[in-house]
Amino acid sequence: MRVTLIQVGDEVGFIFPDGILERYNLKTGDELELIVTDYGFKLTPIRKAPESCSE
Questions:
Q1: What is the largest CA-CA distance in the chain?
Q2: Do residues 32 and 21 make contact, with C-beta atoms less than 8 angstroms apart?
Q3: Helix (H) and strand (E) counts for the chain?
Q4: Virtual CA dihedral for 53, 45, 14, 34, nearest 10 degrees?
Q5: DSSP class of residue 51?
Q6: C-alpha dist (Å) from residue 14 to 5, 23, 39
Q7: pTM of structure
Q8: Are 5 and 12 in contact (CB under 8 A)?
Q9: pLDDT digits over 14-47, tens only?
């Protein structure tokens, strides 16, 4: 899948295709881990642990 880098204020970013947002249940404000490798990089969603219910 290809995306195009765009100017976002003073930064550079890209727009996630809707299918990716839906597939990984991503919303504005979610955090992603950027992992840099010798071959490029990958983005991984950071999942928060569900809050436990105390009874």
A1: 49
A2: no
A3: 1, 4
A4: 130
A5: P
A6: 5, 17, 20
A7: 0.65
A8: yes
A9: 998 889 999 989 999 999 999 999 999 999 999 8
